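Why does residue order matter? Because the sequence determines the fold. Keep that principle in mind as you read this record.
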Amino acid sequence: MTATQKSQAENSTTDNDISTLWYTRCAVPTASSLAFQQSWLQESFAAIDISLESVRASEDEAVRASHYDNSLRNQFREGGNVPAIWAKSIGQPTVVVGITWVEEFQAIVTRADSTLADIADLRGRNLGLPKHEGELVDHSRASALHGFITTLKIAGIAADDVNFVDIAAPRLNIRENPATGVLSGSDDNRRSVLQALDSGEIDAAYIKGPGAIKNIRKHGLKVLFEISAHPDPLAHVNNAVPRPITADRDLVAQRPDLVARYLAVLLRTGYWAAQNPAQALELVAHETRSTTEDAAAAYGHELHNRLIPSLDANVVAGLEHQKNFLFEWGFLPEDFDFAEWIVYGPLQQARLLLASEDESEITLKAAS
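Structure:
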């Protein structure tokens, strides 16, 4: 029996007895990553004799694939929205129980010696799109395309007036070291796309995050347009903005107490980050394998205030905007009822849970 089959056999019981929960995260700023690094999630569930297992630390490739396809039951996921939306599109019974909106540096860049001076010059040019063969869903390709489409619309250029060039990229492979919790491996297209840019195969590339800050400095890249600086927040929407927290619908229905417990830890972590910005930045830099300087430049001076899960109308609208883009551009096999995907009860219960605890001033703020 594989680890996947074992998990489903143990946790798909008709009663509500659960001994194992799964969680997964991306190597980006999330409340889950900060809580995990400080053992707050693990300790919370150990206190009620439930094992919290990491999807990405598993030796079983089928288990690790659940980061993308949500094939494991009783799983929580916080990270990029493309896999989460895609998993819902293929029929996985997930619900969104929280969302964070962490701003992230996103830009369209070209070579330092390029004749391109403005995004208006992109008309007729070659724009690079990474293509990862064998992936369940190519979130890096979706990210690059969305960044370009947003930019072209702002410049008044139709998508048919540019040439999208496929750039072969290595398969995405993020693993978590079970001993240290460190995420490592290839999770983006930076090297392949930047090589194509340097060779002249493409004229412009989409880059993001601390790696973008580093590569602009390292390669002397010219920033044609900083998407993340645009005044319309919907222009910032991409795989990393906003980030949903998903859980299995059956788990929400059958064990709402466990979902509320998980979210309560994330809320507490978000409020801790708001009061401890320097420590939060250090944890984010560690999670993203970057320096604190590059992490600060990539995620902005409000990073520490952006890690509190919510389901406010603006973050929900941003996630729906991304779903609509992915369906329009063929990344989803089926459309789905977006409003039905959002479930508000667990986060409300988590806030009440925190408010009932007499732990600290930070805890009490969660009910406000």
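The chain has 17 helices and twelve strands.
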